[in-house]
TrEMBL record:
Entry GO MF terms: carbohydrate binding; isomerase activity
SUPFAM superfamilies: Galactose mutarotase-like
Keyword Acyltransferase applies: no
Species, as recorded: Hallella mizrahii
Protein name per UniProt: Aldose 1-epimerase family protein
Domain of life: Bacteria
Length: 289
């Protein structure tokens, strides 16, 4: 476990999965979900080399099948600490004999966490050391405690989006996207109220960069947590029917498979391409208060 700290925030990150496990303010108040397995036993997994699920649980590279579980393997692997300072830490994961069985490419994945005042910057850096083009998806899955919820209460909360127009979401089919079916998510001047049934059709998945700033509001309408991203897709999720007291706000460079998709990895919707020797870098920012 590694810790970074400044005058406003104290953040802890696990070596396993390079997973963010705690974000506290100067008064010691915790904002990140604490992985109660009764509801969901994770805090903020890193999604790589896929986001979401694969149709029939497999993808294809040059005609060969590769089974891979939901959200890929990075979240379940130990990362190496490669840099550490008072306010920044960097973890890395490289291809291995184990990963090559699941993902037939050489890669370097680095994840850094950096504090700036009351902001936590989460940066992904993917490098292609291979002699051929690689394809991948990457995403975040941070879960935040819903403010003003008491023990045993039904899930209730509000998010404020930087888009007050009706927002188009995908509907799902067997855990994958049905691109022929959409519905509008309407808000009250950008404010969306949610409960456990808001997720009966699984996560809300938005593409086309419709939302870039999301605020988690308290009962008075004040932003408690803000997530900012330039990612092309966004997922919002809490487990349906459990009244779990958390909400996930997930920046994604990629989405779960479209239903019935049986093509090559390179043809997946919102897949990223890296030529030999090239790299990809992006970040999202969590602001507390």
């Amino acid at each position: 476990m590694e810790q970074i700290k400044n005058s406003q925030l104290t953040v802890e990150i696990a070596d396993h999965g390079a997973e963010l496990v705690s974000v506290k303010d100067a008064q010691g108040k915790e904002y990140l979900w604490q992985a109660d397995p009764k509801y969901w036993g994770r805090h903020s997994p890193i999604l790589f080399p896929i986001v979401g699920s694969l149709w029939n649980g497999v993808y294809h590279v040059c005609g060969k099948d590769y089974p891979l579980s939901r959200h890929g393997f990075a979240r379940d692997m130990d990362f190496h600490l490669i840099a550490k300072g008072d306010e920044q830490v960097v973890f890395a994961l490289h291809d291995s004999a184990e990963t090559l069985k699941k993902y037939p490419f050489h890669f370097n994945l680095a994840v850094s966490y950096r504090l700036k005042d009351n902001e936590l910057h989460v940066v992904w850096h993917v490098e292609n050391p291979d002699d051929k083009t690689i394809w991948f998806q990457v995403g975040g899955h941070p879960a935040f405690r819903v403010p003003d919820m008491k023990q045993g209460e039904p899930l209730h909360g509000r998010l404020r989006f930087d888009n007050s127009e009706p927002i188009r979401r995908f509907l799902a089919e067997q855990g994958c996207l049905d691109r022929s079916r959409h519905e509008e998510v309407r808000t009250d001047k950008g404010v969306w109220s949610f409960d456990t049934h808001s997720f009966d059709n699984d996560a809300l998945v938005f593409d086309h960069s419709q939302i870039r700033r999301i605020e988690l509001l308290d009962a008075k309408g004040k932003a408690v947590v803000t997530v900012q991203t330039k990612a092309p897709a966004l997922g919002i999720w809490s487990p349906s029917g459990k009244d779990a007291p958390f909400i996930c706000i997930e920046p994604w460079y990629g989405v779960t498979d479209v239903d019935g998709f049986d093509g090559e990895l390179r043809d997946k919707y919102l897949v990223n391409q890296l030529l030999p020797g090239s790299s990809f870098m992006s970040e999202y920012v969590i602001t507390i208060g």
